[in-house]
Amino acid sequence: MRIGIYGGSFNPIHNGHIHVAKSAINDFRLDRVIFVPSRISPHRSIDEYIPGSERVKLVRMAIKDDARMRCSDWELRQDRVSYTIFTVRHFRKKYPDADLFLLVGSDMLLSFDSWNSYQDILAEAELIVVSRHDGDMAQLEAKAEELRRFGRISISCTPPLEISSSEIRKKIAKNEDFACYLNESVVQYIGMMGYYKERGGIDNV
């Protein structure tokens, strides 16, 4: 089995996240993509998050019609910072016979060598990169080549879908239309709960 691990705050999950997952599935013949919402991202402020259980609920709403996608709350149940190496090793232990892939956006690749134990991550799982910005392919290829001495890195040729969680939260806070960026069930639930109304946030995972 070929399994993709897709971590992030998903605050909230949007169509760009689904685009990354589907691109990886289609381009690299993945059997499954597991979304893993982070408990405490080492790059973000916890004050910007809605509760982890609610982010999981939104992810499950967004992917419920695609059997190839799952959501794990494993990181949320850990009493520590959500370093990716811990997550990769967890899924390596859970699926010892699977080919593991780690899905990241282009911005994450460019800073990948600042991640905790990044060489060990590349030893455990192949990196799949899906561009999030037009015109960055040459930069991605150069960075990937620099890092390939530590492991395998593949770059999707699928055109990017430029959406960020931070821009969505800003639109919600300003009472601007945001429905086109999210799954319909997610839009309805956010509206019902009043999430992001008084927070702008800067997280664009």
Question: Keyphrases for this structure?
Answer:
alpha/beta, Rossmann fold, 39% helix, globular, disordered C terminus
Write structural notes for this entry.
The chain is built from eight helices and six strands. By secondary structure, it is α/β, with parallel strands linked by helices. The chain has a single domain (2-162), classed as HUPs (Rossmann fold), CATH 3.40.50. Strands 3-2-1-4-5-6 form a six-stranded parallel sheet, with helices on both faces. Helix 2 runs antiparallel to helix 8 and helix 3 (84-94) runs parallel beside helix 5 (118-124). The relative contact order is 0.20. The model is unreliable at 199-205 (pLDDT under 50).
Assign the CATH architecture.
Answer: 3-Layer(aba) Sandwich
The low-pLDDT segments are 199-205
Strand content: 15-25%
Helix content: 25-40%
CATH topology: Rossmann fold
Order of helices and strands: EHEHEHEHHEHEHH
Q: Could you give the count of β-strands? A: 6
Class inferred from helices and paired strands:
alpha/beta
Relevant CATH superfamily: HUPs
Spatial strand arrangement across the major sheet: 3-2-1-4-5-6
Q: Tell me about the biggest sheet?
A: 6 strands, parallel
Helix segment tally: 8
Total domain modules: 1
Q: Name the CATH class.
A: Alpha Beta
Distance between the termini: 27 Å
- Give the radius of gyration: 16 Å
Oligomer: single chain
Summarize the structure.
This protein is α/β, with parallel strands linked by helices. Helices cover 39% and strands 15% of the residues. Helix 2 packs antiparallel against helix 8 (184-193) and helix 3 packs parallel to helix 5 (118-124).
